[in-house]
Amino acid sequence: MAAVPGDGPRTPSVRIGPIDLAARVDEALAVQAIAFGLGPEEVEVRRHIVLRHLDHPHARALGATTPDDRLVGFVYGLPNERGQWWSTVVEPYLRATGSVHWLDDSFVVTELHVLPDFQNRGVGRALITALTDAVDQPRSILSAIDTESPARGLYRSLGYRDLARQVLFPSAPKPYAVMGAPLPLLRGR
Asked: Full-prediction pTM beyond 0.90?
């Protein structure tokens, strides 16, 4: 368990620790909807995806909760397998950049979201480092919207680098970047 201090009544301290994401999927998707700007239809689609991912025996999930157990952020992921949908979509892009080997023996950070009031306080950093510190794989991969954003800045500060850019996912309105980092992730800012 880790703690991220608060800075007043509007943003109390949070505890980072394991959560039963399947039991809290609706809370987590509410966080994601606010943080990522999702509509109700997209939330319902993602609900099924999250629950399917959590069936994987090595899926891991952590949450950021306030003292009254309000979920304000979450992260989850699982070991990459070449037959997984995400992996099959990104493989040609990684092959084109000579980075396809990143799909092997990697842990995929599938989702990381923090409510806006709790962003820029180290919550996302604490979630992703605690998640990846507990895995056996030597590296981590993830995808993020391919724009200069605070999320991409966070990932770079942790050691992630671009492996492929302008990756198009079916039905996604914006292109993504696939990023990878050796584990353990870098510390500091």
From this structure: yes
